[in-house]
């Protein structure tokens, strides 16, 4: 395994199916460009005469579009920015925190990362889309699924405030799990 000597940038991107690591190698003398997603080589280009530009690839189970922009800052200095679905990583993550809820919990010595996609009500756990059963209850809805033999329920209840909208709570074995901040 050749050592990554031209590694210039590493990003961590939290998607519904997990947190993905993106690494970028840029050989400024050879013009080499290599993109790794979760340690797997996605793009390799040798001997590029143009040192600036962009590389586009996909990340995760949903094949989310990602682009690395390579810009010259001054002389032989370069700046590398990552865009997810056409937005800067920061903007994408800010928007994502509005459209998803994430919980991290430990059950029987195993760690689980549960993600609710609010627009579709899809539930993901450790990279797998879960089978769920939804039901209407007196004060909102409940989405039921199980993780590692434990019964789980995401309750969706109106906050009563227009700005806050609907509040989602994960309950596992009658225990409320605090939301994670990613």
TrEMBL record:
Example GO biological process: apoptotic process
Compartments where located: Cytoplasm
Pfam families recorded: FAIM1
Keywords, comma-separated and alphabetical: Apoptosis, Cytoplasm
Gene Ontology cellular-component annotations: cytoplasm
Protein's gene: FAIM
Name listed for the protein in its UniProt record: Fas apoptotic inhibitory molecule 1
Function: Plays a role as an inducible effector molecule that mediates Fas resistance produced by surface Ig engagement in B cells.
Family: Belongs to the FAIM1 family.
Cytoplasm is among the record's keywords: yes
């Amino acid at each position: 395994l050749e050592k990554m000597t031209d590694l210039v940038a590493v990003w961590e991107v939290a998607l519904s199916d997990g947190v993905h690591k993106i690494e970028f190698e840029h050989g400024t003398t050879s013009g080499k460009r290599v993109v790794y997603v979760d340690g797997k080589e996605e793009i390799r280009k040798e001997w590029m005469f143009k040192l600036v530009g962009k590389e586009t690839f996909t990340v995760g189970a949903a094949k989310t579009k990602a682009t690395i922009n390579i810009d010259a800052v001054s002389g032989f200095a370069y700046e590398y920015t990552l865009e997810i679905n056409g937005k800067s990583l920061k903007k994408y993550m800010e928007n994502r925190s509005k459209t998803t809820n994430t919980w991290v919990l430990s059950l029987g010595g195993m760690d689980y990362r549960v993600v609710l996609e609010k627009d579709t009500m899809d539930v993901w756990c450790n990279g797998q889309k879960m089978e769920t059963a939804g039901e209407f209850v007196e004060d909102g809805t409940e989405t039921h699924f199980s993780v590692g033999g434990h019964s789980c329920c995401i309750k969706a209840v109106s906050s009563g405030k227009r700005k806050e909208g609907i509040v989602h709570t994960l309950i596992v074995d009658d225990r409320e799990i605090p939301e994670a901040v990613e």
